[in-house]
Amino acid sequence: MSSFVSKEKTQCGYCGIKIRRDKLKNHTKLKHRGQPVSEKGWQNIASVFGKKRSVPLQPKDDDNPDTAHHEDTHVSSAESESEEETTEMAAASDSDVHMTDEGSDTDVPIPVPMAENASNPVPTATAIPLINKTLPFPTDPVHFINKPVTPELCHAILAEGPCQPGLNEGFDFAKNEKGRSFVRQWYCPKLKNGMKSYRDWLVYSPAKDRAYCFPCWLFANKSDPAYNPNFADPNEGYKRWRDASTKFVNHENCDLHKQAVKVLIETKLRLKLGKSVNQEQQRARERQVMENRKVLCRLLDATLYLSKQNLAFRGHNESIKAVRQSQETAHSCFGKSSQDGNFLELIKLLAKYDASIAKHLATAPKNASYLSPQIQNEFISSIAQVIQDRIIAEIKQAHYFGVIMDSTIDISHVDQLSFCIRYVDEHFRIQERFLLFTDINKSDSQSLFDRLKEILADLGLEIKLIRSQSYDGAANMSGKLSGLQTRVKEENDLALYVHCCAHNLNLVLCDACSECTEAITFFGTIQKIYNFFTKSQPRHNALEAAQKELSLPAKKLHKQCDTRWYCKQEAVKSIKETYPALLLALENLAESERNAESRADINGLLGFISNIEFLLMLEIWMEILTDIKGLSEYLQKESMDLVTASRTVKSTQKTLKENRTDTHFQELLHKARTTAEEEGVPNEFTTPRIRRRKNMPGERTRDDPVIDPEDRFRINVFYRIYDTLHGELESRFEDYHSVVKRFACLMPSNIGDIEGIKELSAIYESDVDKDLVLSEYKQFTHFFKDSQVFAEKKPQSVQDMLLVIKENDLNNAYPNLTVLYLILGTIAISSATAERSFSRLKLIKSYLRSTMSEERLSSLATISIERDLVDTINFDAVIDMFSTMRQRRIVLH
After folding, report:
1. How is residue 108 annotated by DSSP?
2. Entry pTM
3. What does the DSSP 8-state code read for residue 121?
4. SS3 per-residue string spanning 43-82
5. What are phi and psi of 832, to 5 degrees?
6. What are the backbone angles phi and psi of residue 330, rounded to the nearest 5°?
């Protein structure tokens, strides 16, 4: 017959985990090694791992580096044999301990409670206080039955004082079956001379109607033969009131009681002087925590520096041993290279001027150096998570937000989706923030929509609060039948889609550049010139020599790109500024070139650019592209709003229309002829060959072609380019202007449009009360026209209006109207923020760093892009986030 083993579980007084009683002794020996039970240990009984446990920086076993192979060896193999040992500690068992090679500082993961509907671990703390001060008599011994008397509990009880009801106020003591009760005078018995003495040791329990000895309860030696549980054990207590006076006198004169009183007095004295053992330990622990956090702040600063500058972290050698050798050897940094990475080299540099880092490098265990690649990744992740949490908090406070998304292929051929958010912060400033990169396997609209919902769920945002979408013109994004914007509108019809204005403007420019053969030839020639001089070093040197000979500033040629908004302007500008040097360089190369094919190419280029038509095209496109560049840069501003952008586009249209005149053509022609005369280039138009075609029978006679070459250029080239620009701006921005009409009533120039505010409030009736909006709008109209506030500020844009509303607390006077202004500020007009993140992507994920994980890439991009938030980051919050990721070997709290 097998023996019965009790499986009843209790809680460990050190860490608070649930454990079988027959395993408790072995658990205590192996895990806690005789450590004193701390106050936090008792708090953890009620909240197991609600708050991260901390362990000493350098345990005794770690003094010998040879035995310190792993950073958190609190979980022994003996514990893992007990499969039923824990419930909350399941994540910290041997099956989850990440054992690494010697010298690594990988920490042991610990379970972190998850907040409801939250994707990130959120530490919680629900510790029960040692004394329940809400009770009438908090230090009644009955409240501490079967509770170990720990030093922390003793200190808490001494601070509260003994339970002596009726000492200074009236109290009805309970009577037993014989009518006897505790007598108040027993607290202060009379001496022979008639004076009263105070028995501070006598305690009465109203809950149990029994008397106890305060010092014996807390400090009596229970192994002493004279130990009397009637006065010291909360389960017992003295209740024979008939003999109480005699028993009390006998007890206070016994040696056991006097010894307990002595310990009580000494304990009070130590507490009074602040020299109790626990307080000293606590102060030492606090000093250690400050030192540890100080070291981590230095390491985090190094991490921030490398992340902000988009620099690599690691090198060939990442061991702490190499770092220590370089620290011990004089001038080692200037001797033979140890091929350490940037992070370790930066730490070594800091150690020269910072004593904390130098001490850490010299004394930290190899498995707690916090310099390993894995710890570097956790530093990066912690910083990025704190930044992201701050952005998410601002978005939730703003309530409404807009989504900006775009994708690109990175160096490792992964399709990276950039996810950005537009919102109005608490100061009523429009913000566009980068949140993350995520890889996408499929680029169809349904896959993108599913990924969008996953991202919003992970960030704790609701799709119903989206008020705008901004993507490029790709069919999978902007398609009206099954594009991403349509799928989002199916779940939220208020998610207004705006085709990226900057992309639209680029398409207008591309159409104009390819409208006529002369424009196509012109830009082809510019690209040919760039390729000719940049792909050959001797030719490039010839161009530089020509610039130096003509005393011109050194200018470089620029490449064209169809996907860059204003690179064409830079290319045309570089040709215009270096035109004299180009002519001279080509002439010199033509004379010295002996290769027939190359010489033909040079003469061909020289012929293309040595005529009045090329110079006139330079003047025409320089003017057009300068106007387009200004508009493009304006549309890419983060604070640009829907209505202001529409007004700017219309202003550019008006400028282009005004320039489409014969007078302006003659002005440009005059500039071109002046340049031609200065450079010795023919200043008259060449007469092209006229193509004649015989009319077939029944065919109508066609109009005779324009014979004059100047008129032909003006009609077929100049007018055609300007007509294309004006027409494309009109057609491509037609839908955009129709959207703007919804919100026109909110702009300063249209305040007072009652019909417009009625239509707008009807669209957003789920966000505002239509009747209240109309009433507030009428009041606001009078205030806007009569108040000095708007007369002084003169707001021109939505951002200006929002700032005036915030500065003058008008959001409280007109809450519903303010909601409409906030929604208008939330509407994104371009995806430039997502496009800009691709520039950082190329710097971070380069050819030499092409294998980094998606999480690391996204974290590094967040730190690099959101620099204004990084500069104000709180390192305490980062360290708290870092400490929740794994159980750390050093105390951080």
Report:
1. B
2. 0.68
3. B
4. HHHHCCCCCCCCCCCCCHHHHCHHHCCCCCCCCCHHHHCC
5. -65, -35
6. -65, 140
